[in-house]
């Protein structure tokens, strides 16, 4: 479990709730409400859940009527104990009721190696402020498609074009075909299930389930930008189109 000082220091970065989520991937509550209209209990995954504020707000709003899942790389990024502490601090739950909260199903796993869930498992997958840290961005998107159910929807805060970083590092998802660089949105439009949507803060990727998704990309290299400069965050991933 993270110490209190660590939690305080990291709150602005790992405790983003539903209001932050809306700025990055649109109105998630409206999407969930639409899915619930058919009366089915839905299953939701947040990748890179951090301190789990959004998940806890969803639990508060919907109770155990929705099945919540979250994945972090390690427990040091946030676990159930941290989630409870932050949820009380943020006023999502009272301290006397936090022990009765049904916890989300949490997994600690490096998503660069794939998502540890069955095919066609989730109704909704979302991610805010974590995709830019993944080295295997192409594989992650393929895996999201795999775990989405037939009518599943994913919303991913890509943040792949970042201001304030030298141009050679500013594009976090770089695609090359021979000597030509292909912009991400131009490349993925051929697959028919990727859509650029506008949120309050920036655009995001909305994905719909397709039976098989192979982006046809091979990772050439990935650089953890924080190793170059402490104020740069994320991983720059460079791909080539497979022959």
From TrEMBL:
GO molecular function ontology, one term from the record: methyltransferase activity
Transmembrane segments: none
GO terms under biological process: methylation
Methyltransferase type domain sequence ranges: 105-154
Pfam family name, one: Methyltransf_11
UniProt keywords, alphabetically: Methyltransferase, Transferase
Protein's recorded name: Methyltransferase domain-containing protein
Lineage, highest ranks first: Bacteria, Pseudomonadati, Pseudomonadota, Gammaproteobacteria, Lysobacterales
